[in-house]
Amino acid sequence: MKALRLVQSSPQPLLVEEAMPRPKPAAGEVLVRVHAVAVTPTEVQWYGTSRAKDGTPRAGAVLGHEFSGEIVECGVGVTEFAAGQEVFGMNDWLAEGALAECCVTTPELIARKPERLSHEQAATVPISALTAWQGLFDRGGLQRGERVLIHGGAGAVGLFAVQLAHAHGAHVITTVSANDTDFARSLGADQALDYRGTPFETCVRDIDLVFDTVGPKIVQRSWQVMKPRARVVTVAVESKSAEDDRVRGAFFIFEQNKTQLEHMAGLLQAGKLQPALDAVVSVSAATEAYRGAVPRRRPGKLVISPIEWSIPQASGVNTGR
User: Fold this and answer.
1) Same-domain check for residues 120 and 132
2) β-pairing, 66-74 with 30-38?
3) Partner of 193 at 20 to 30 A CA spacing, among 21, 129, 176, 185?
4) 122 by DSSP, 3-state: which?
5) CA-wise closest residue to 98 among 234, 257, 246, 283
6) Residues in a beta bridge with 174
7) Which residue stretches of 96-197 are H helix?
8) What distance, in Å, lies between the first and last C-alpha atoms of the chain?
9) Residue 266 banded pLDDT, cuts 50, 70, 90
């Protein structure tokens, strides 16, 4: 099959197309024909991108661990899925990702794709929606009627956080760019503040929960608008190494959770949760996408699809095209 391998991560990512053997699902695994892959630029720095399961250095990783596609084959012991079913989800961070014609995953990491969503839309959901859910409710303990301040409410995670907090009955305040205030309100934000034009400290008070997707500096500014027993959750990568112990303590990384993913699928199918897709780019633009060089036109994630390849198809490999 054809795949993109990360051959350089610094100073800028470089992905190169190569031919590689199509994987065979082991017992308890499924093989998925990939239709769409969401781009997460920080994946280049993930531990699993440069390290194997035994901790040894790893080179040439296949990125893209958030995808949507169709099951091609089920390994021994898999009973809840069957070939031909459309699914979305993730796979093991230490395994090869989905920037390939096919990828391997397990039933615990995928769910049936909502029929009302395209593969491109579905690929934007798993990591972002689960991060928003777990940050708000599992880690943040958000309760109905509380006031939540969401920094970055038009970002990949923030747009789901705004919707979920609103649906939960919270009073939602979010900071976004001036161009995204209307978009944030359409998601359910009670107040959408231009983070450049309206410093939130001047007009926000009595916050019960701060959910941050931006970074430690904005968390530092948030202390003054919080209630005495308020909580803070941040998913911004740089917060992990912040100097302030309170910021480091507020940092969390989401966990893969099948039950929650299936719940998100139900909300999406019912129209109670909406994905946001910025743009769809081809495989040839994958390097630019991971470098942040693709112009952003609207809120949401970049998605690589359709999977168009230049390497001739290997004999006997059915790509479904």
Assistant:
1) no
2) antiparallel
3) 129
4) helix
5) 283
6) 150, 192
7) 119-123, 126-133, 158-167, 181-187
8) 13
9) very high
Q: What is the CATH number of the domain that holds 133?
A: 3.40.50.720
CATH number of domain containing 86 = 3.90.180.10
Cis peptide before 11 (omega within 30 of 0): yes
- Residues near 14 by Cβ (< 8 Å), separated by ≥ 6? 6, 7, 8, 287
CA distances from 112 to 26, 145, 268 (A): 21, 33, 11
Q: Output the six-digit token pair for 91.
A: 């796979």
DSSP string, 239-299: GGG-SSHHHHHHB------HHHHHHHHHHHHTTSS---EEEEE-GGGHHHHHHT-SPP-SS
**Which tokens is 239 given?**
């917060």
Residue 135 and residue 179 in one domain: yes
Residue for token digits 């997707």? 213
pLDDT digits (tens, 9 = 90+) for 75-119: 999 999 999 999 999 999 999 999 999 999 999 999 999 999 999
The helix (run of H) or strand (run of E) holding residue 171 is: strand 171-176
With CA atoms as reference, report the closest residue to 89 among 264, 234, 307, 253.
Answer: 264
How do residues 174-221 score in pLDDT, each as one tens digit? Answer: 999 999 999 999 999 999 999 999 999 999 999 999 999 998 899 999
Whole-model pTM: value is 0.92
Most confident of 45-54, 237-246, 309-318: 45-54
Amino acid identity, position 26: A
